Amino acid sequence: MSDGDAARNVYSIRPREQLAEFVEMAATTVHDINNPLTFLVANMSVEDGHASALQKMVKALVALDDPAVNRTLVEFGAQDRLLELVEIIDDNRKGIARVHALTMQLREALKP
Prior knowledge:
The protein has 3 helices and no strands. The chain is mainly α and 112 residues long.
């Protein structure tokens, strides 16, 4: 084997090694993103349950038709805050779904 052949072999192996390292790093990154994402998804269902319970509670308090209770609900902006909370939870869910979709696309692209 000539010196030129040896040099070509070294240069052809290096890009493959770099690609393999990149693929491994990307796969690790996908895994590292999905771990906390799993917690976020689980927490979203807990948040949904709490928001639903709060909605029922506010509805029941409004149904009492007690001026003091209604005044307190208005004073604290309970209904508006609750609506905003539900919107925030929905936005978070959409963001989590987008990150999950991106990681799944990357995982698919990394398959041999």
